[in-house]
Specification:
This protein is mainly alpha-helical. About 85% of the residues lie in helices and about 0% in strands.
Length: about 90
């Protein structure tokens, strides 16, 4: 993912210098600029997906832990407060 972003950035930087900061481009330069932008966008999408996945995992882990603590506390409280058998 990071390598893709670096490749896209290097391609865009090289093409910017070659095409006079994107003002005078040939057909090949335009095609390479599009490819570099697609590579950069794919890297950005991958990074955002990874970040969102980690956030979702942290939220699920937090909610799961709270639920487990509540269930254990309920079960322990029920076991402790059970009236004696007659």
């Amino acid at each position: 993912m990071i390598a893709m972003a670096i490749v896209g950035l290097v391609m865009l930087a090289g093409l910017a210098v070659r095409s006079d900061w994107f003002t005078a481009t040939y057909l090949l330069d335009r095609a390479l600029i599009i490819v570099a932008c697609v590579i950069s966008m794919a890297a950005l999408a991958g990074a955002l997906s990874a970040i969102l996945l980690l956030v979702a995992l942290a939220l699920l882990l937090g909610f799961g832990t709270r639920l487990l603590i509540a269930v254990v506390a309920f079960l322990l409280g029920f076991a402790i407060r059970r009236p004696p058998e007659r």
